[in-house]
Please model this.
Amino acid sequence: MLNRKVRIGGAVAAFVLAAYIGLTYTGSTIIETAVAATAAEKADGRRDLDQLMKSLQAVDTSYAAGNAAEAQARFAEALSTWNRISRLISAREAREQQLLLDSLGSQLKTNEPAAKIKDTVTGMLDELNDDIASELK
Model:
C-alpha cells in the first residue's frame, strides 16, 4: 500500500514538473513574440538611446564637478529614459543594463569617488553603444 502511494506521488510530481516546464517554455515564447518592437518603436528607441547616453554623460560630468544633486537629477532622467527603452529590447540585455544602472545609483547614493562613477558610466556607454544600439536597428 505504501509503495503504491509513493509511485502515485512520484507520478503526480513528475506530471506537475512537466506541466510547469511546458508552460514556462510556451509562456516565454509568447512573451518574446508580444514584445517584438515595431519599426516606429525602434526609431523612438534609438532617439531615447541617444538621450540616455547624453544623460549618463551629464551624470559623470556633474558628479566630477562636485555637483551631486545635479548628478542625481540627471540619473533620474536617465532612469526614466531607460524605462522606455528596456521594453523594446531582449530581456537579457535589459537585465544587464539594469544591473549597471542599479550599481550607478548605489554609487551615487554612497558618494563613491568620481573615478569610480566615471568607470561605471564608461562601461554603460560602451554596452549601450554596442549591444543595445544593435537591438534597436
